[in-house]
Write a structure and sequence with these properties.
The complex is a heterodimer of chains A (326) and B (247). Chain A is mostly helical. In chain A, 77% of the residues lie in helices and 0% in strands. Chain A contains 16 helices and no strands. The radius of gyration of chain B is 25 Å and the shape is elongated. Chain B starts with a helix and ends in a 9-residue tail after the last strand. Classes of the chains: A mainly alpha (326), B alpha/beta (247). Chains A and B meet through helix 2, helix 3, helix 11 and helix 13 of A and helix 1, helix 2, helix 3, helix 4 and helix 5 of B.
Chain lengths: 326, 247
Amino acid sequence: MMTAVKRARRRSRPGGVVMLATVLLVAVVAQPAVSSWFDAPSLRTWTTVFVSVCLQALPFLVMGTVVSGVIAAFVPPGEIGQLLPRNRVLAVPAAGFVGVGLPGCECGSVPIAGRLIARGVPAAPALTFLLAAPAVNPVVLVATAVAFPGRPGFVVARFAASLLTAVVVGWVWLRLGRDDLVERARRRPAPTGSRAEAFRATTVHDLTHAGGYLVVGGLVAATLQVFVPTTVLDGLAGAGAVAVLALAALAVVLAICSEADAFVAASLTQFSPTAKLAFLVVGPAVDVKLVALQAGTFGRAFAARFAPLSFAVAVASAAAVGAVLL
Amino acid sequence: VNAKAQGALVACVGLASAYLAASGAYLAYLKPAMRIPLLAAGMVMLVLGTLTLLRAIVVGDEPEAHTEGHGHGHGHGGPQVAWLLALPLLALVLVDPPALGADAARRDTAGAAAEPAAGDRFDPLPPPTDGAVTLKLGDFVTRAYYDEARSLAGVPVRLTGFVVRDPDVPDGYQLTRFVMACCAGDAFPMRVTVRGLDSAPPADDTWVDVVGEWIPPEDPTARGAESGAAIDLSMQAEIPEPTYPYE
């Protein structure tokens, strides 16, 4: 009965393509007439940031979904899991070091981690990979060295604190995490048809899915960036735990790509080195764009637990490593 | 989202990205190095989206529904959230957002020029052309903040940026340029206070070339942001917005 109602409703709806084409066509035709509605400087600033965040993430997202599609189409299920140590406690740090070899931003590693779980990799090492890949890869480390000239300690500290975060979160998940929380990723059906067809179907599916959540993240990040005044930071600068928490929270709000965040951290001159380190360690692990992507790939219940866990572990790692190295 | 719409969305986003990369319009949002990745991503999406659309037209939507029938907010075919991919397209078409300007600069007060490597000497200034040394705005600010050898003292410099009017500077404005690492989402403004203007300042967001001399801070021991970066204006010319408006 429900299905019958749903089906009837679907049939009466104009096709998606027709709707999309109509909306875009109307937008193009009406643009000269309505462009003055969008003249408010704040709206234009917001739109610039929103479009920039989406465009910047797009190449990395496409790379991640293409890798995910290749795994789905060409790697037999179970095979990847066998590459990791049989011992689950050791598999977690091993997955962390695999992340070192994958240059890219955090947007690309979410679909890959989702695909790894769908292909039988246990959740804990897959999540460690998810956290490590965007934070400790060579491109990010070089960018950090360029942003902090003459202070190689920052590169070492970032590498150590981010890898520590990824491994500790993996171990905590091994002990306390519930596998039903990643069911959404695991239940992804094996693609059917030829390999090329399987590649196309999974890539397009991942792309539209993750892309939609990327837009959600872009909307939130642009709104927070443009409309939360930066003067709230003024009273929190300096050293101590408050400064560390302030920059950790800023990293969540700004949602800057891990290849660019070191330059922003270097510009926050009024904060202590450990606070800047917290900014660099938290950003690639938890930010509004990333939480949206994770909620889409693994489910909301997962994101609601994983994001606070990653945040707490990242802040603690940054504080500990910063105290030793900076 | 059925397979047809899914394919159309992916193809449209791909086409728009490839167009932005090819036409150079992407420079209002991304750094030049992102051109090839953006173009490649756009082409991949265009091809995959078109194939999906064509396949859905020829074979119908049904096969897609089988592979996707795993109920996480998917209606029939693809996830509903995919519709949001149309939002950046609409934003581009309707608002045609410009590069970050005066409004964004007024909002962002957190960033400051980062200190160069400790103990590093600044390179000598480049030789003057047409009676002034041409510097990036960010270089000028870094030297004004941190150069203990005071290489800027007494040297006419030429800077390029846009105008941000400032009620605290009645005889000038804040000459501003955003410094970008990857995209406009991470850009932060560099500011040089221009003083000694004897007419009304140009409107916000007007791009200008200026020539002037550094005004050293009143407190000679000041370092970093509290020393400020200011010039005494001797020449100002309005120019068109540069192709790449960031530094």
